[in-house]
Amino acid sequence: MVIVNIIAICQEVLVSKYTAMFSKCQPFPWNDTIQANIRDLYNTLDILDIDGKRIALGDILPAPSSNGKGHRMLLEGPSGSGKTMLSNTIAYLWAAQSNYFKNPCPLLLHIDLKAVLSNFDEEVYRNLFPDNFKVDQGEFWHLLEQRAEDVVLVIDGYESGKDFPSLLDILNGRKLQQSTVIVTNDHEQCPNLGFQPDLKCFIMGYSMKNVLRCMKTYIRLFGSEPENHPKLFEALEDETFGLSLYITNPFICLLTFGVYQTMKHINLKEITTVANLFETYGIAMASLYCKRQKIDVIGFEFPEDVMEAIEQLTTFAFTSLTDDNKCFTEEEILKETKFQIVFKLGVFHKLTEGTKWRFVCNLMQHFLAAKHLADFVLEDILKLIKDHSLTKHSKYNQTISFLCGIYRNDFDTPVLSSLFTELAVKNVRHTKVSIQEVKSNGMVEIEKKKPRPPSGQILDFGQSLQSLAECYNRDDAFEIISRSLPARIILRRDGIIASKCIYAMQQVLQFPENCIAHLELHVLPLYLYQQEMYINLAKAASKSKTIKSLKLNSNSLELSSKFLNSFLEEAELVDSIVVDNLGKKNPRHITASTWATLQNACQNMGKTNHFSFRNCKEAATVYFVIHHLPNTIQELNFSGCTMNMMCAGEISSHLEHAQCLQKLDITNCHLVGSDIVAIMQGLKLCGTIKSLRLCGAKLDRPATTALCECLKLTRTLSTLDLSHCELSTEMIEKLVCAIVENRSLKRLLLNSTKVSEEGFAAISRSNLEENVQIEGLDDWGYALYT
């Protein structure tokens, strides 16, 4: 009973606090009339799970775990995507509507890590509860441990738990094991979490439809009607609008509206980059301040005190960024900036009740820090970058990109070329080159295998690519970076890849100086939300004069089909296309449009020499792909796919009509005797086949007989791979006789093939090795069976 009373007391205090906090953290004056509009605005955020399914705000709290351990849920999103806004909204809805969430919780703790400086337990307690609260700190944490299954912790602004051991204990389940913990995180700020989340969700920002909806809400909040602002919506709906790639970010959307609202005469179409938007926003806020102070401004000639305040503000932003400070008292800000004006420029925002402030968004802090760097001469800029290791850590990606963006129109100094040269050197350092020499018996021998091209992950080049996105009009910058990128680029992340990186990669692929020959992309279902961006990447790759191979590791048949179709529509001769299906489950439903797109992509394979479609677990999809492939492909690989008799019949037909097919790999395709018999019928009539891989096939007597008949007839087959099969003595004897009659076979692979002792003896007696290279004999010791 005592515990229940204490929980009720805590609930009462937290409900009051969260309600007040939500009203104070809005950019608009708070009253009951606009409450519905604000909540409607926040509900437009798109939150996706790892499978690309949209999560409603009411479903965001996971159900209690049944195994005695609460869920650790990661809410990931880039800077400005609305993570803080979302965490505040969750706390407010818990306080204001007890039945809002599908999985309710008795006690929800909203923890803003920006307000926690040293002692996690102490400062969390102090930030949540007033002085002289009835429950002291020790009792509070003891209560949470006792009722851990009823507690949800929403932790906003997680960048590193290394300074808070107590927090890491919670995240790793050593404390409050049964509690549910929701953590918001920006991957660039914290690439290494220090714990393994059970669930991952992604804050994608707004869809373009919801951008328009938000703008209408903003206009109404300022007492006007959308019909009175046609120029705003005309600019937003224009396909050539420079910010269309970024305005789905909620903070960018808000800044765009702030610029429009303050400078209604401005042509939004002239704002082309994010750095350009921040520059315009700074002018807008300075103009608004002067207007309110009734100071006349001619052009952009602001009073000295305003300019000095801005200069001090940029210095403060740079210092706080490099010192990793996110939260400040009013006194701390004024001590460094010395001007009360800085609180009137739309840069700071009240964190919670009290005197603590923060930058309205990390992006704002990064831009101001970049502005501080831009005020120095080139030598000092490079020295500051080196002294603070700004190019070494991903958390400074935005700073460097904004710095380059500030110099985007500077053609008179070598600053931009020097910055991109530094980034190019970093790219070369991150390029992985395969080792071509191996030591053997104390000597160095050159491997005979074809060397792998230099490669690198797109995240390793994120800083230079994001900087390019801010300088899209600078061919000199693109030339420097394009030459520094390796031949093989891998776009792989178990989450969101920064849109600036994808956009810049589109530009690089079309730049004549690039040397990217191999592109590998891991396609996640959640990328369907960004499909236009990835389809544009495919189109850019199709126009590239250097791309020779494309590999798609796919968890989404829909998006990989669209990507492949867009790539093949304009691509010239492509040496290799590989589609690796990574999905553990078969898709429940494949739409008609996906079938049509996949068909079109397959029919365009006439420009391709080698095609691999591997590990597909849906036989109907495999059949569909084989059926629509042209007869001009030289190499086909369906290893790991699930096949049935219809697939086998389609392969047989493809072999029969093939014009230049030389290699066929159907390893581990769950083929049984009757399937293999069907395939052999087509193989007999194929006059071009040189290599056949049947690894793992379940050969029976009819299948072996059909294979032997084929060996007797074919005059082109030079390599046969029967690794991981089981061959009886009778099968081996038939194969030996067939191979003796064959005049073309040069290699027989029997790695880990199970063969009886009599079968091994039959091979030995036949003296096949005189004419055929047999691989796998060294493994007979463990492969024999009786």
TrEMBL record:
InterPro entries, sorted: LRR_dom_sf, NACHT_NTPase, P-loop_NTPase
Protein keywords: ATP-binding, Nucleotide-binding
A Pfam family assignment: NACHT
Domain of life from the UniProt record: Eukaryota
Residue intervals of the NACHT domain: 72-185
Keyword Transport appears in the UniProt entry: no
Name of the protein in its database record: NACHT domain-containing protein
